[in-house]
Design brief:
By secondary structure, this protein is α+β, with helices and mostly antiparallel strands. It is built from 8 helices and 13 strands. Helix 1 (about 20-30) crosses helix 3 and helix 2 packs across helix 3. The protein is globular. It is an enzyme of class 1 (oxidoreductase).
Length: about 325
């Protein structure tokens, strides 16, 4: 169990296996920062339709633009231009909360918009269910994490839709450079036929196994702060592949922009006897502004910078 990627069958949370499933979840949050969930309540039919529409959309609307980028990137790299700050991905973003922008995103047909809107509602419910399971394991009252994410307009929730097309020179360019995620809890629907996602575990890169109809979940920086480091965000990357076009639909359930983030007092008290220094208190938008400039750098200096008084002014 210790060395295998954590997989949680959420059907077991309703029966005699609940205690075991909750322990797997706790170990995943403390020691992996990632886990995979099965039987999560989102229908396989909906997931299949999301996948079909997303892959069709890339072929019809995004492929031409990406191939132009790919051609220039490869040409530049053969001339000695540094391509280490580029990612081999085609991406667009959908915002769901506090206000949806799905109707404004170009090149989406009405059926795709409708399906993605419904998919987002299902993911939002799932994210909030997971946050309550985390509360249970942490000894926090139900709803604490959801409330902690609520600024004046509630949480922020959005989706990054990505394609990672085949790359003839994966030695020259990354699919997506190594980073931690800035936000709260991240739910990923990834391709089950093309791999590439890896995380750091015990100093080594480990593959996140592609599993059909699973959702991959990972801990963001804000949950690390709120849990005072009990749960940690983990560095991950996408390795460009020579074959196959990998689909990635990552949905980020994050605090509201004006939410004040700080370690849960109950968890700080528990660890005070260990003389462990508490994580900082800050406004989420301030953290995001810093993160956008330093996304592909270590997270610790970001946390340290948030300890400065200006961060909460």
């Amino acid at each position: 169990m210790e060395n295998s990627f954590p997989i949680i069958d959420m059907a077991n949370l309703n029966g005699e296996e609940r205690g075991i499933a909750m322990k797997v979840l706790q170990d995943a949050c403390e020691n992996w920062g990632f886990f995979e969930i099965l039987n999560h309540g989102i229908s396989t039919e909906m997931m299949d339709e999301v996948e079909r529409l997303t892959k069709d959309h890339y072929e019809q609307c995004r492929k031409k633009r990406f191939l132009e980028f790919a051609s220039k990137t490869l040409e530049d790299s053969t001339k000695g231009t540094d391509t280490s700050n580029l990612d081999w991905e085609s991406t667009f973003f959908l915002r769901h909360l506090p206000v949806s922008n799905i109707s404004e995103v170009p090149d989406l047909d009405e059926h795709y918009r409708s399906v993605m809107k419904q998919f987002a509602l299902e993911l939002e419910k799932l994210a909030e269910r997971l946050l309550d399971l985390l509360c249970e394991n942490l000894g926090l009252e139900k709803g604490y994490l959801k409330e902690a994410f609520c600024g004046s307009k509630g949480p922020t929730f959005g989706t990054k839709v990505s394609s990672y097309p085949p790359c003839p020179r994966p030695d020259l360019v990354k699919g997506l450079r190594a980073h931690t995620d800035a936000g709260g809890i991240i739910l990923l629907f990834q391709d089950d036929r093309v791999s590439g996602l890896q995380l750091i575990k015990d100093g080594e890169w480990v593959d996140v196994p592609p599993t059909r109809h699973a959702i991959v979940v990972n801990i963001g920086d804000q949950l690390e702060v709120i849990t005072n480091g009990k749960y940690k965000s983990v560095e991950h990357r996408v390795v460009a592949q020579p074959d196959g076009n990998r689909m990635s639909i990552a949905s980020f359930y994050n605090p509201g922009s004006d939410a004040v983030i700080f370690p849960a007092p109950a968890l700080v008290e528990k660890e005070a006897q260990d003389k462990k220094e508490a994580y900082p208190k800050f406004v989420f938008e301030d953290y995001m502004n810093l993160y956008l400039r330093h996304k592909f750098e270590p997270k610790k200096p970001r946390f340290e910078a948030m300890k400065q008084p200006i961060a909460t002014s």
